[in-house]
Amino acid sequence: MTFALILKAASFAAEKHKQQWRKDLDGSPYINHPLAVAAFLTEVGGVSDAHVICAALLHDTIEDTQTTVDELISQFGDAIARMVLEVSDDPAWPKAERKALQLAKTRTLSHEAHLIKLADKWCNVRDIMHAAPVCWNDAQQAEYVHWAAQVVDVARPANAAMALAFDALYAQFKLNKVRGS
């Protein structure tokens, strides 16, 4: 049942994100992001809880697609839907306010949601470093990365290995900026 549930979540997320593309030069399929978040949770974080992995796969469905909370509850149950809702932003808010709210909200999240936040921020920063959105300049990239580090600082107690991996990535980002690359 565990593998079936994870595959169901991956399939659901792929269907919901099928018309979405990342803003990188290649226009990568959006589904690569939730898959990377789930992979980071398992490979670096050692997370084996199927509900957390499913929520990671689904973490952007409420925020970025027409998926409803009721739909997630009916497909995956209350626990997974709750985690997805915890890590979802309200896209109706302006970007700056959304970031401030996310940082404040991170302080109140469950342990499971903190795990997803750590993985999501690591994946986003890695993507900025290797395949940044083409419409983002250096200042926008740096702003996001420094903000992500603040979110990680709040969530870091949830998983030392993932926090350390983020720290290494963040240090590499800063070093690259100093070197001008």
Automatic annotation (TrEMBL):
Single GO term (MF): kinase activity
Pfam families linked: HD_4 (PF13328)
Keywords: Kinase, Transferase
Domain HD/PDEase: 26-134
E.C. designation(s): 2.7.6.5
Matching PANTHER family: GUANOSINE-3',5'-BIS(DIPHOSPHATE) 3'-PYROPHOSPHOHYDROLASE MESH1
Protein name: GTP pyrophosphokinase rsh
Organism for this UniProt entry: Ephemeroptericola cinctiostellae
Lineage: Bacteria, Pseudomonadati, Pseudomonadota, Betaproteobacteria, Burkholderiales
